Amino acid sequence: MQLQSKLPDVGTTIFAVMSKMALDHHAINLSQGFPDFPISDKLIQLVNKYMEAGKNQYAPMPGVPELRSAISKVIEDKYGYLPNPETEITVTAGATEAIYATLAALVNEGDEVILFDPAYDCYDPSIRLNGGIPIHLTLKQPDFSIDWNKVEESITHRTRVIMVNTPHNPSGAVLNHEDLKTLEELAIKHDLIVISDEVYEHIIFGHSHESALKYEGLSKRCVAIYSFGKTFHATGWKSGYIIAPDYLTKEIRKVHQFLVFSVNTPVQYALAEFLNDRENYIHISDMYEQKRNVFQEALKDSRFEVIPCHGTYFQLLSYKGISDLDDMSMAEKLTKGHKVASIPISVFYQNKQDDKLLRFCFAKNEDTLLKAADILCKI
């Protein structure tokens, strides 16, 4: 049978490739973005509590009411925006499902979607699978900032969506107040939908997170996406949520119901109770900032250049002063020869731009970070 692939240029994601390589070669895995330390015992106990209480059948399609109510209160507390739990909040099977459901619901055949490279690898395929046309703009070096003049020049009558990601994976850059005001002005002027990937909202250093929901003009035309997996170190739970005005939520839920219908029920009840205590999430940035500082300090005598990291749990290192190898070859060499796995940044660019940068995940125990840094300092 002749099969025509919808994604002929897409292979196995780099995260799976590098994690397998790390496993095969017994390397320290700082490639894929998952913590190697346990999640809260209290949260585990709450999941068990609700399993024992019989909360094991399908949840309501938009999410259990208790969780949506808790999310609403958290968002109001953090950003001064009070989303309606019934009509503006949808619990999803992680941020990736949230992104896909949003694009499937809102992008029509031939619509253009502006995104910024280096971009998380699910954006482009999700756009194309739903008939959209990805318009890749490159973030400015060395700070990975957005050239807003270039953005406006790229907007056409077919542009429907702008996708932003702050704090930004893979660079660790963050958008500031001026960025969000400019985005708001452009979205209103050109009648655009904004998809704001904010999954690392609780992992930001020296700044307060500038959510799109803080801006009235954006909140009326924005889909903001969040991740409990990133926030509570439970990436395997695949739990996240979408906040969007009711007219967008209505369309997104039409798709969401046929992708997963609903999300793990006892986990939702557990998260709802866990969110009611601010102490369970307000110190997350402090914890990760400490890990970032430990990793950076341990690398100060290395030949790698440490790129500033303002958010996420990823640290970019430049190896320009060490090798002329392309970044994929360098990542393989480090994994196989030196037993430290990372992610090459060229994979996040449509044009495979190679700036000799590797991404290392510091969501690890400090012993793991120090061991990896010791190896890197000997290169």
Give a quick precis of the structure.
With 379 residues, this protein is α/β, with parallel strands linked by helices. The protein has helices spanning 14-24, 41-52, 65-79, 94-106, 123-129, 148-154, 177-189, 216-219, 228-231, 246-259, 265-275, 284-298, 327-338, 366-377; strands spanning 28-29, 89-92, 112-117, 133-138, 159-165, 193-197, 222-227, 240-243, 305-306, 314-318, 340-341, 343-344, 357-361.
Index terms:
alpha/beta; PyrdxlP-dep_Trfase_small; Aspartate Aminotransferase, domain 1; kynurenine-oxoglutarate transaminase activity; 379 residues; seven-stranded mixed sheet; Aspartate Aminotransferase, domain 2; four-stranded antiparallel sheet
List the helices and strands and how they pair.
Elements: H1 14-24, E1 28-29, H2 41-52, H3 65-79, E2 89-92, H4 94-106, E3 112-117, H5 123-129, E4 133-138, H6 148-154, E5 159-165, H7 177-189, E6 193-197, H8 216-219, E7 222-227, H9 228-231, E8 240-243, H10 246-259, H11 265-275, H12 284-298, E9 305-306, E10 314-318, H13 327-338, E11 340-341, E12 343-344, E13 357-361, H14 366-377
Parallel strand pairs: 1-11, 3-4, 3-5, 5-6, 6-7
Antiparallel strand pairs: 2-8, 7-8, 9-10, 10-13, 12-13
